[in-house]
Design goal:
10 strands, 353 residues, Arginase, Chain A
Length: 353
């Protein structure tokens, strides 16, 4: 399988983030994707450098104003002096114009750059550093290139995206995600003439951004297997089983939450339900948001999926028999991320043969 990669992802490097008001070490370092790339190259996968793209597809997925904000946010932050007082080197939101706060009032654009961050960010754990936009833009290019390979006739392609993307919506970012790579891959396929696309999200956490982007779409099915947000897990407010879409998208959204502590059997049974829903939708192409943070070795979720579970999950996706773009999402244990991704791709390829 061709593995699409670009070294510019490493320009995004924000080792300290803020969680419940406390500075903590972030868990999304550049080493994540270097390890994945090296593992896959060692197994014989062909590494392809991502092509550069203009913003046409990106603006179909995200509000252009948000993209422009993200492009300039860090430079404006520095000009405003926040790295000196209060001493915060990276753009970090602190005030959020919630629906209840506005209560129907128009959203004003604040003059304060610190306040403006909260217009687009949904949390404090997703800071914008000096190279964040360059890194996130490289991840978009990886996803778009992988989708173009499939449009050109490849049966599958894997995008080694970092930073991840499925928590980023049309007009918001958060959860360590800035731009939605899987959504860009999906829109690239639709824009390229594909009639229907299904997004299969295997990340341990619900892809609230992907769900929001495609919520009213009848040509895109979004389905996710993830740890139950009702049990207190991020993104907390969405990802429940009764969320099925709206308008033209009614019935095109399927969430299959699993209980904390779920292992291979429970997780794969939930995936089978998701695959059944995707099959009923009848997609022409499948996009997989391949998070491997549901693994037993990963401290970011309470699920207990093994490498064999990911291999079987790859095989389950392959049973759909459709051209497939796989886009990397979560997976934060540096000792196991490469092997887990390799297992999923191996399971997919062997079942596709």
């Amino acid at each position: 399988m061709k593995v699409v990669y670009h070294p510019d992802h490493a320009h995004h490097d924000t080792p300290i983030v803020t969680w419940v008001g406390v500075p903590i070490h972030g868990d999304e370092p550049p080493a994540r994707m270097e390890l994945v790339r090296d593992t896959l190259a060692g197994l014989g996968h062909e590494i392809v450098t991502a092509d550069a793209h203009d913003d046409t597809i990106l603006h179909l997925v995200h509000d252009p104003d948000m993209v422009e904000y993200m492009r300039t946010a860090h430079a404006e932050w520095q000009r405003s002096g926040y790295q000196g007082e209060p001493g915060q080197p990276n753009v970090t939101a602190y005030a959020f114009p919630t629906e209840k706060m506005l209560h129907g009032l128009p959203l004003r654009r604040p003059r304060s750059r610190a306040a403006l961050a909260g217009v687009w960010a949904m949390d404090t754990t997703t800071p914008i550093g000096p190279g964040t936009f360059r890194g996130a833009r490289a991840a978009v290019d990886m996803a778009q290139t992988a989708a173009e390979l499939v449009l050109a006739g490849a049966p599958s392609a894997y995008a080694a995206c970092r930073p991840p993307g499925h928590h980023a919506g049309r007009g918001f970012f958060g959860g360590s995600c800035y731009l939605n790579n899987a959504a860009v891959a999906t829109e690239t396929l639709i824009h390229g003439g594909v009639g229907k696309v299904a997004v299969v999200d295997l990340d341990a956490h619900h892809g609230n951004g992907s769900q929001e982007i495609f919520w009213r779409r009848g040509d895109v099915f979004y389905g996710s297997v993830h740890v139950d947000p009702a049990e207190g897990w991020f993104p907390h407010f969405v990802g429940f089983a009764d969320e099925t879409g709206a308008d033209a998208g009614i019935g095109c959204n399927l969430n299959v939450p699993v209980a904390p502590g779920s292992g291979d059997d429970e997780w794969l049974a939930a995936l089978d339900r998701l695959i059944e829903g995707v099959s009923g939708f009848g997609p022409d192409v499948v996009v997989v948001s391949l998070g491997v943070d549901a693994a037993v070795t990963d401290e970011n979720s309470p699920t207990m999926v093994t490498g064999d579970g990911y291999r079987r999950a790859g095989g389950a996706v392959a049973t759909l028999g459709r051209p497939t773009v796989l886009v990397q999402e979560g997976g934060y244990d540096l000792e196991t991320i490469g092997g887990l991704v390799a297992a999923a791709l191996d399971g997919f390829e062997k079942s596709s043969a």
